[in-house]
Structures are given as structure tokens and as C-alpha cells.
Design brief:
934 residues; alpha+beta; 20 helices; globular
């Protein structure tokens, strides 16, 4: 079927939409199905019949004769294997290949429920490989993918890999700001790129319409590849190296075998594997549901469209990939044709009933021209010649997305040695295979994957209705402008503390972490709707400069420093650990780098290190009994830290662990009058001699009892955190507000908390600390007790680092000559320069309301000028340099601090000033109780 230039001409041909042919005619710019009467928008394009075109395009530049013609051999199912990989996706094939390269080929079995012959129809993808991702971890994964594609190509294997470059276009000033930020980040990320004018963009791709374009970002080493060819090449190479491949093998059930293995029941029998790797993409969630216990793999499919034209005149074979991000579209050259698609703002969920076809050939979805129309209009606007182009077909294939749009990789928290690598069908996901191969062969990933780790999810994220709602929003984030503190609008008001309604009434504007609603700031003036009812509002910044919440955060900050601030800490992870004897003490001594054998009533802050010395967890432990501890960890650690402890617990059930996060409402009161105010509500003596800093007491507050009180805050301010049984939460909250009114108590949100902790030089796990960061690198060596009588995990690595020296140091940088009213603000990821040379990157930034300037935290390295390899870094090296931070292409001078600064206050307090996040001496006698005598 085609639509001629004269739209009044009607024509009746047949269109193959991948699922069935639709016969109809064009009327008023729409395709009318003669059988159903359904209208399909045609809009401005000539549509031609597609006869004999393969269901799944090959994106290789090699001729068809170069494709594989022999079948991939399918073996019989073995009884056992060291590694069982399920899913011949690009990731699964790459996992098998990389394990085989590591010498494990003979111990690896790859299963797939589909056929793996030459007729296997791998799901269609765009084939785009873009080096830039939101974080360095994701960048490294893509770089690993490119490394793999080049390796196969160098072997003469068909991959479709071609480095044609990519050109990203900007229509708005904010998008140009994003490009300038990316250009700054590229220094530390090793990505070659440049900012272009509209005229330069058109020179690279002459078919572009650039009248509404402000500029572009050119990335010359980006490219395209072919999923089908890559999968076939990887599978054949893996098979040559001994990997057993079994097709038409569906999994029925997975149970834990003796030890750490899995008994995998399939349609062809049962196979026992030491490791199981779930790479099933669209089926990954369903496979997780088949295990015992269930492994949560939160994924949902959405419809994803690809438009294919016939050959386009004037289209160069060397044309780059074009991404018009503000138009939410992409297109690329494909054998003289254009292949185009995009990420619409409101996606359509696929397979909403949960019934996903078993094989790829049956997965193409009916085409909805009306839904695709918004992308089609943008394509024609950007490449006007498409209006006269002859279209070959429009295909609609499912693409999977996680709740945050990121890949999912790592060991499941539910079953040991059950690994997951999924989250996308894109060719770039092949790089995840390196992390899986590392975990199996050496016990840890060589790339820090904490932000992609499967443990970042809770059970609520695996709820199908939640996923169905969230998948409408997540695809559009791929091309959305990445403003600071980005929040999602779907899947909200899931986890709330009992005082959430009171916070909403007080003007709370909410962010969400691990599904938990937390006030970001408070705006009392605009908290009611037209009917006078308190509104639920989602926090939004939508600027790279001074944010709209600045004044609110400033007032909240001042309350915490000079009066009393009240903040909801309920989302923090809370875990009870106990045993009958000293088993729990011994376990924690083994897991923690600090000495946890402290007097009852003492709080100890400690890391739980990896074998390499990095932070697996960063937590506070209150010893509330001789064999009972109460652990507080970051919100995002709720699944991860529990799984880490459980993996190291001795058998026999001698130690009990209970996640009590949802049992307690946590209210933090901080400020110079917090002790006086709390004293009015309890009979317990809160004087420093009776209740010193970094200790725990159980209090009565108001009429409530059983409240676990911590004399500490997570910002370095004087204050208390009250862990209140939920049934007493509203009562205690009300009494605190009543008692605090005369002291100027004020509700405070997390943006003010961020400013407080950044000024005080406090590092947070997941932002500043990760599994590759050690205590010696971030000024916390005084929290590592090498001389305690237990050999803790990571001790040897930390002792070696102590003897050899560190190659990077955590610093605080205060910006000079930066005008916070007009200049772009740092938001993390900005490069740091020492004496003009790149030396590190910012991890966290915030405005410092006491310093009255921007404050940044990050790591400084000493990179060899020729090899770029990191060398030893000392305090003297750091302090002897002149520093600059580059924000969106502009460098600002900065003053460096190695240790927590002393901030002036109207009400100085010896106890508050005694505790600092970083130190240059191993002395905490002023804030800690004495060592126990037992």
C-alpha cells in the first residue's frame, strides 16, 4: 500500500505489520482495515507493500552470503554443570562466551526454550551502541560491549559492528546544558566528543532540518551492531570452546540443591548447576517466579516501534546515528535505508495479562499507527525527505524495562549462586556478561555494579500491577532531560510512615526512595488544593541552576543549626540481630571492620567491607543487649545488607535476623535545643553524662513507651533519632511539635539534610561510598580496628593498602568565584582539575548555607601524565595543588579540605564539635564509652 502525493487518491494494497496483513484503503490520511473498520493513521508518508521481506531485519553491512548458514548444534541435556545459563539473548550468549574464554567452556550449559538454528528469530533491536550513559558504571558496561564486538569482528566473525559515530541534537537551552555537562564528564570517562553548531550538524548529516536546532553533541566512536549476528557468532564460538547448548528446553522449576547449587527441572529433564544465570530478558521475571524461594526480577515489557524505509536517495552509507532527544526519536542508516524509532513519553505496556509467547517469532505485536504517530511527525520534521520516502514496514516488538530503567545484574538476595543479567534486549547489554563472568570466576565484578545490582529492589517492585503502571513512564526517561533529583510520577504513595498525612498537611513535597515517600522540602503556602484539602506533591527541580526550593531548604537548614529541625528518617533500613550466646557478636566482628564488642547502650559506626576492602555496607550498630544489636543502614541497603549478613551466618539457626524497617517510625530532631525539648517529654535524664553522644537508650516519650533513642544524627548536628513503634508514632510526633513550638521547631526535608551532611563532609553509601571505596581512601581509617581479636572480611586488603598507600583521597571542595544566582550548579559527576590536569570527579554536591557557596565532595587521584595510571596520593600531594571544578564547560577555582571543617554557630557545643566524619588521628575517647571488660 502507498500514499501518493495526492492524498485524495485511494489505493488498496496489503501491508505486512509483522503479525498479519491488513487490507484496506487510505481515507483522510488514515488506513482503514476493511475487515474490522479500525483506523490506522498513515500520516504524510508513502506506504508500499512488503513482499518477501524477512520478519527480522539484519543490520550487518556484510552481504547476505557472509551470514551463517549452518545450524547451531543442539546437544542433549547433561545431568550437571558448573554453570547453567538460561536464555540465548545477547547477554546470555555473551556470558557463555566469556566463561568459555576463561577456561570454563566444558562446564557451561546454555539452555533456551526457543530454537537456536539459523531460522531463530532474535527479537528486533535498533542496534545502537552509545558510549554515553548517565553514570560511569553504565559507561564501562557499554565500553565492555564495544570491546567484545571489536574482538569478534577482528576474528572475522559477522557482527554488524560499525563505528559510524552518533550525533545528538538539542532543541532547547537545557539540552545544550546537558551536552556541555557531558562534554565535561567525557574527560574522566574517556569518551571522545565535541559540541557542534547547527550548521556543523547539517554538514555531518545533510538530510537534517536544523532551523530549530541549537546545537549538537558529536560522539565519533559510537556505532551500530546486529543482535542476530552477534548472538550467532557468540554461540558458535562458545560451542567451539566446549559450551553445551540445548534448545527447546523450557524451565519448569528451580529448587536449591544441597550446598549452594540449584536443581533445575526442565522439559527435557533435571540438571544440577552450581551457578544458575537468568538471562531470559522478556521471560526473566517469570523464570524468577519458578524458583523456590521466588527470585524477584522486576521487569515489564512495553511496545517499541521500528520504522523501516526503502532505499533513501542521498543517504550516505557512512551516515551516523542521529538522536533528536527533544523529539524523542532516533534514526540510522541501514543498507541505504533509514531505520527509525523513539521513546514516547507515555509508553504502552505489552502482555498486560502476563502471557508472554514462548518464542521470539511469535512476539511481534499489532501495530498501532495512532500511538506511533507522535514519533512519526517528529521524524518527518527532522528529516523532511521522509515525507516522500517509501516505507517498507513498521514493526512493533516488546522491550523490557526495570522500574528505574536500568539493567539488572548480580547475585539474587534470595538464592546464593543464582545470578541475573537482564533488563534490555539492546546490543549494549552484552557488557553485563563481564560482570557475571567475574563473579563466577573470581568472586566479584571488576566493575562496581552496586547501582545495577538486583538487590536494589524490594518485593513491591515485582508486583505486576506496579510494573505495568511504571512501564508507561520509564521508556520516556531514556530521552528526557536528566534534571537533578529526578523523580518518577508512577507507583507513588506505596510506602508511607504513619505521620505521612501530617507531613502532607504541613506542606511536604515528596521524593521517593525504595518506594518510600520522604519529604524533600516543605512549602506551607501552596499545600492546599482548591477545596482546602492538603495536596500530595511530587518534588521537581527542572533546572540546572538555582532550584525553586532553595529558600525552603535554607530555612530548614537554619532551624537544624540554630533551633530545632524535625525530619522523617523512617525509610532508613532497620534490622534486629540477636542470638542466645555470643554468636551474633562473633559474626558481626567478622563482618565489621570496626570493633563492635562495645558496652551495652553504645552505638558504633562501622563499615562492612568486601574482600577487596570496599564498602559492602555502611551502618550504625546499637548494642541493646549482650547478644542483641539494632542496625541502621541506608534506605537503599534494605535488601542488600540483609542478604550480605545472611550469606555469612553460620548454619544451625543460632543467629536470628529480622528486618523491622516497617515496624518503626523514625523521627530525627536536631539542633541546639533538641535535648532541652526532649527532656520535657521524658523522665530519663538526658544530660551528656547519663546519655552521651553515640549511645542508645530506651525512652518513654509523652505517654508512649518502648522508643529506641539514638543520641546522634546523620548530619553531624546535635540531636536524637527516635525509633518509635508505629502505633505511637502520631502521638509522639504531635507531642514533639507541641513542646518544640516555643523553640521554633520546623519540619525539614531531605534537601536540607543533604546540605548539612555535605558541609560536614559526611559520605553516604551509594553516593560517595561504594564497593570499590575503602575506609583509608575516605578518611575513615580511625573506624577500622586492625588490632581487634577477630579477622574481619577485607582486613588483609586494607592492611596492604595501609602499607602501600592509597591512590585516591576523598576531599571537600569549596567553589570560589561561583555565582549561585546565575551560574550552573554542580550536581555530581563534574571533573576535578589539579594544577590544570584532570585528577578526579565529584560524587556529591550541595549549596553550603553556612559557607554561602557551593560545596562538593569527591576523590582526587595522582594520574601519571603518560600512562594515566593512578599513583600514590598523600595528604601533602592533595594540599599542595590548585583546584578547579568544571561545570558545563566552565571552570571554577576551589579550596580543598581533607577533614571536616568547624562550622560557626550561635550555640557551640563541645559534644557536637567532638564528632567529625573524617579525622587524622585514631581517637574517639571524647565521644565513645570505654571498652568493655568482658
Amino acid at each position: 500500500m502507498f500514499l501518493s502525493r495526492n492524498r485524495g487518491i485511494l489505493c488498496t494494497k496489503s501491508i505486512d505489520f509483522g503479525v498479519r496483513s491488513i487490507s484496506g484503503h487510505i481515507q483522510d490520511g488514515k488506513l482503514v482495515d476493511q475487515r474490522t473498520g479500525i483506523l490506522h493513521r498513515a500520516s504524510k508518508c508513502n506506504i508500499t507493500s512488503k513482499n518477501g521481506v524477512e520478519n527480522f531485519r539484519r543490520f550487518s553491512t556484510q552481504p547476505t552470503s557472509a551470514l551463517w548458514h549452518d545450524k547451531i548444534n543442539s546437544d542433549t541435556l547433561p545431568q550437571s554443570a558448573d554453570v547453567v545459563v538460561y536464555g540465548a539473548s545477547i547477554t546470555g550468549a555473551a556470558v557463555a562466551y566469556n566463561l568459555a574464554k576463561a577456561g570454563m567452556g566444558g562446564q557451561v550449559v546454555l539452555l533456551d526454550q526457543d530454537t537456536l538454528t539459523d531460522g531463530r528469530a532474535w527479537l528486533e533491536t535498533s542496534g545502537l551502541v552509545g558510549a554515553f550513559k548517565p553514570t560511569l558504571t553504565q559507561v564501562k558496561i557499554v565500553q565492555k560491549s564495544i570491546q567484545l564486538f571489536q574482538e569478534l569482528t577482528d576474528k572475522g566473525l559477522p557482527t554488524g559492528w560499525r563505528q559510524c559515530g552518533s550525533l545528538n541534537l538539542a532543541r532547547t537551552r537545557d539540552r545544550m546544558t546537558v551536552f556541555r555537562r557531558m562534554k565535561s564528564q567525557s574527560t574522566g570517562w574517556g569518551i571522545e566528543c565535541s559540541i557542534l553548531t547547527p550548521e556543523q550538524c547539517k554538514k555531518i548529516f545533510p538530510l537534517l532540518e536544523v532551523s530549530d536546532i541549537l546545537g549538537g553533541l558529536w560522539i565519533p566512536k559510537d556505532g551500530v551492531a546486529d543482535t542476530t549476528l552477534l548472538c550467532q557468532s557468540l554461540l558458535r564460538e562458545a560451542q567451539k570452546m566446549g559450551v553445551t547448548i540445548v534448545e527447546k528446553c523450557a524451565i519448569k522449576h528451580i529448587a536449591q540443591a544441597e550446598g549452594r547449587g540449584q536443581a533445575i527441572e526442565t522439559s527435557l529433564g533435571t540438571i544440577y548447576g552450581t551457578y544458575f544465570v537468568n538471562c531470559a530478558t522478556l521471560h526473566a521475571r517469570d523464570i524468577g517466579l519458578l524458583s523456590d524461594p521466588i527470585v524477584k526480577v522486576p521487569l515489564h515489557a512495553a511496545e517499541h516501534y521500528f520504522l523501516h524505509t526503502k532505499p533513501v536517495e542521498g543517504l550516505s552509507a557512512d551516515a551516523p546515528v542521529i538522536r533528536d532527544l527533544d523529539g524523542r526519536i532516533f534514526f540510522r542508516e541501514n543498507e541505504g535505508r533509514i531505520l527509525a524509532g523513539g521513546y514516547e513519553q507515555n509508553a504502552k505496556p505489552a502482555f498486560e495479562d502476563g502471557a508472554i509467547p514462548a518464542n521470539a517469532a511469535s512476539m511481534q505485536l499489532p501495530v498501532d499507527w495512532d500511538h506511533f504517530h507522535v514519533l512519526l511527525e517528529e521524524l518527518i520534521k527532522r528529516v523532511p525527505c521522509l515525507e516522500e520516502a517509501v516505507l517498507e514496514r513498521l514493526s512493533n516488538v516488546p522491550e523490557v524495562f526495570s522500574p528505574d530503567g536500568k539493567w539488572i545484574v548480580g547475585e539474587s538476595p534470595e538464592i546464593q549462586n543464582y545470578l541475573v543479567a537482564t533488563g534490555s534486549q539492546s546490543v549494549a547489554s552484552a557488557g553485563l556478561s563481564y560482570a557475571i563472568a567475574d563473579i563466577i570466576t573470581q568472586g566479584y565484578s571488576s566493575v562496581d555494579i552496586h547501582e545495577l545490582d538486583i538487590s536494589r529492589f524490594l518485593g513491591l517492585h515485582n508486583n505486576r500491577k506496579f510494573l505495568r503502571e511504571r512501564v508507561r513512564e520509564v521508556p520516556g526517561l531514556h530521552y528526557a532531560i536528566p534534571y537533578p533529583f529526578q523523580e518518577l510520577d508512577t507507583g507513588r504513595t506505596l510506602r508511607m510512615s504513619p505521620i505521612f498525612p501530617a507531613f502532607k498537611e504541613a506542606g511536604g513535597v515528596f521524593g521517593q526512595t525504595m518506594g518510600y515517600e520522604r519529604p524533600s522540602w516543605f512549602d506551607q503556602k501552596h499545600c492546599l488544593d482548591d477545596n482546602g484539602v492538603p495536596k500530595y506533591r511530587v518534588a521537581a527541580t527542572r533546572t540546572f541552576g538555582k532550584p525553586p526550593w532553595f529558600n525552603f531548604a535554607s530555612e530548614e537548614y537554619n532551624a537544624c543549626r540554630e533551633k530545632i529541625g524535625l525530619c522523617d528518617y523512617s525509610s532508613f533500613t532497620k534490622v534486629d540481630l540477636w542470638s542466645k550466646g555470643r554468636e551474633i557478636v562473633d559474626l558481626l566482628q567478622h563482618l565489621c571492620s570496626n570493633d563492635v564488642d562495645v558496652p551495652v547502650g553504645t552505638i558504633i559506626h562501622t563499615g562492612m567491607q568486601t574482600k577487596q576492602g570496599g564498602y559492602e555496607n555502611d551502618c550504625s550498630l546499637a548494642r541493646i543487649g549482650p547478644s542483641h544489636y539494632f542496625m541502621i543502614a541506608p534506605t537503599i541497603q534494605q535488601t542488600r545488607c540483609k542478604a550480605w549478613i545472611e550469606r555469612h551466618m553460620p548454619p544451625g539457626g543460632q543467629i536470628s535476623l529480622s528486618d523491622v524497617t516497617s515496624m518503626y517510625t523514625a523521627i530525627c530532631i536536631m539542633g541546639p535545643f533538641s535535648r532541652i525539648m526532649l527532656s520535657e517529654l521524658t523522665d530519663t535524664d538526658l544530660a551528656p553524662k547519663n546519655f552521651p553522644f553515640f549511645t542508645y537508650r530506651e525512652l518513654d516519650v509523652g505517654l508512649a513507651n518502648g522508643i529506641r533513642a539514638f543520641n546522634l544524627t546523620h548530619t553531624g548536628e546535635l540531636g536524637f533519632v527516635l525509633y518509635i513503634p508505629n502505633e505511637f508514632a502520631l502521638h509522639v510526633y504531635t507531642r514533639l511539635l507541641e513542646a518544640g513550638e516555643k523553640y521554633g521547631i520546623r519540619h525539614c526535608g531531605y534537601y536540607a539534610m543533604r546540605a548539612l551532611r555535605v558541609e560536614k563532609f559526611f559520605a553516604f553509601w551509594g553516593q560517595d561510598l561504594d564497593t570499590f571505596t575503602t575506609p583509608l581512601e575516605c578518611g575513615r581509617m580511625w573506624r577500622v580496628k586492625f588490632d581487634k581479636p577477630f579477622h574481619f572480611i577485607g582486613r588483609d586488603a586494607l592492611m596492604k593498602q595501609r602499607d602501600e598507600g592509597v591512590t585516591r583521597l576523598y576531599v571537600q571542595l569549596l567553589l570560589n568565584d561561583h555565582d549561585s544566582e546565575v551560574d550552573m550548579w554542580p550536581m555530581g559527576g563534574e571533573p576535578i582539575f589539579r594544577n590544570g590536569d584532570f585528577c578526579g570527579q565529584i560524587t556529591t554536591a550541595s549549596y553550603g548555607f553556612t559557607f554561602k557557596r557551593q560545596v562538593c565532595l569527591g576523590f582526587v587521584q595522582n594520574l601519571h601524565p603518560e600512562t594515566n595510571e593512578p599513583e600514590k596520593v598523600t595528604n601533602e600531594y592533595v594540599l599542595s595543588g590548585d583546584y578547579e571544578i568544571e561545570i558545563a564547560g566552565i571552570r571554577f577555582g576551589a579550596k580543598v579540605n581533607l577533614h571536616s571543617p568547624n562550622l560557626p554557630t550561635k550555640y557551640p557545643d563541645q559534644e557536637r564539635e567532638a564528632y567529625k566524619a573524617t579525622r587524622d588521628k585514631n581517637d574517639e575517647s571524647s565521644v565513645m564509652a570505654p571498652k568493655p571488660s568482658w
